[in-house]
Amino acid sequence: MSSIRMTLAGVSSIAGVKSNDTMSSWLKRSARALGLPLLGLVVFLMIWQAGAKQIHTSLGEFPGPSQVYQQTLSLIADHNAERARESDFYDRQEKRNAERIAKDPSYEAKIREYTGKPTFFDQIGTSLVTVLAGFFIAGLIAIPLGICIGLNGALYSALNPIIQLFKPVSPLAWLPLVTMVVSAVYVTPDPLFAKSFLTSLFTVSLCCLWPTLINTAVGVSAVSPDLQNVSKVLRLSWGTHVVKIVLPSSVPMIFTGLRLSLGIAWMVLIAAEMLAQNPGLGKFVWDEFQNGSSDSLGRIMVAVLVIGLIGFLLDRIMLLLQRAFSWDKKAITR
Predict the structure, then answer these.
(1) Residue 8 pLDDT grade (very low, low, confident, very high; cuts 50, 70, 90)
(2) Does residue 333 surpass a pLDDT of 70?
(3) CA distances to 95, 96, 193 from 104, in Å
(4) Average confidence (pLDDT) over 165-194
(5) Burial class (CB in 10 A: 0-12, 13-18, 19+), 70
(6) Which residue spans traverse the membrane (predicted)?
(7) Three-state DSSP state, 218
C-alpha cells in the first residue's frame, strides 16, 4: 500500500511539473506574441514624438502622437456634426412635406438628397468600395487567365512579353489614358456611377491584376506531375482537372498573388484619388494639403495611419481566407 501511495505521489508530482512547464511555455509564447509588438510600438511612438519636435514646417511643428490623437477626436466630432446636420435636413423636408400634404392632399412630396461635404469617415468608405471593386474586377480577369496561361505553354510564351511590358507601368501613367477613355465611352444623361469613381476603379484594376496573374500561372504550372498522372489515369475532363487537381494545388500561390494585388491596389488608389479628385482618402489628403491650415499636418498624419491600418487589416483578411481555402491546414502562412 505504501509503495502504491509513493507511486501515485510520484505521478502527481511529474504531472504537476509538466503542468507548470506547459503554463510557463504558454506565458513565454504570450509574452513574445504580445510583448514584443507592444515594445516596438512604444519605441516607435517615443522616436516619433522626439523627432516631431525637431521638425518645423511652414504650417508649424510636425505633428506628434498627441496632436494626431487630438485631430482624430476632431475628425470624429466633425463626422457626428455632419450626420446631425444631415438628419436635421431630412427632418425639415419631411415636416414641410407633411404640412403641404395637409393643405393639398394631391401634392406629390419630393425628398432632395443631402449634398453636404463628405466627412473623413465617409471618404474611408468610398475608398474601400473603390479598392474592393477594382480588386474584384482584377481577380475576375487574372485568375482565369492565369490558369489558362499556366496550363498552356504556347499561350504563356505568347502573353509573357505583354505581361512583362505592362506590369511595371505606374498608375500615374495609366490615369490620364483611363480618364480619357472613360470620358469618351461612358456618356449617358443619367449615369449610374460617377466618372471619377470609374476612373479610379479601372486604374486600380489595371495596376493590381499582374501579381495575381503571374502567381496563378506559376502555381498552375508547378502542379505535381504525380497529380497530373492521376488525372490522366482517371481520364478527367479539362474542367474537372482544373477544379479537382489544379486549383487545390495552386491555392497557396493564387492567394499570395491576391494578397500582393490587394496591397498594390490600396497603394495605387490613394494616388488615383488625388489626381482624379474622386472622393476618398487620397482626395482628403490632397484637400488638407491644399488647405494649409494649422490642423492640416495632423489630419494628414491621421489619414496616413488609417491608410496603413486598413492595408494591414485587408492583408489579414486575405490571410484568413487563404487558411480557410487551403487544403494544407498545417502550412505556415504569415
Answers:
(1) very low
(2) no
(3) 14, 12, 36
(4) 86
(5) middle
(6) 128-151, 172-189, 201-224, 245-276, 296-314
(7) helix
**Residue found by looking up cell 483578411 in the block:** 317
pTM of this structure: 0.82
Is pLDDT of 171 > 50? Answer: yes
Q: Which residues 6+ apart lie within 8 Å of 74 measured at CB? A: 295, 299
Find the mean pLDDT for residues 198-202: 89
- Cα 188 from Cα 186, distance rounded (Å): 6
C-alpha cell recorded at residue 206: 489595371
Q: What is the DSSP letter of 60?
A: E
The answer to whether residues 218 and 253 touch, using CB atoms and an 8 Å cutoff, is: yes
Q: Which residues pair with 57 in a beta bridge?
A: 60
Alpha helices in the chain (DSSP H): 2-30, 36-52, 65-103, 120-151, 153-166, 171-185, 195-221, 225-233, 238-241, 247-276, 281-291, 296-325
Instruction: Give the list of residues 6+ apart from residue 296 with CB closer than 8 angstroms, or none.
Output: 59, 288, 289
Rounded Cα gap, residues 11 and 3, in angstroms? 12
Residue of higher predicted confidence among 330 and 55: 55
Q: What is the pLDDT averaged over residues 111-120?
A: 85
C-alpha cell at 240: 474537372
Q: State yes or no: pLDDT of 307 exceeds 90.
A: yes
DSSP structural state of residue 32: I
The domains located in the chain, with CATH, are 122-182+191-325 (1.10.3720.10)
- Per-residue DSSP letter, 117: P
Q: Which residues pair with 60 in a beta bridge?
A: 57
Higher pLDDT, 155 or 107: 155
For residue 61, give the 3-state DSSP assignment.
Answer: strand
Closest CA to 142 of 238, 247, 220, 216: 216
H or E element, residue 56: strand 56-57
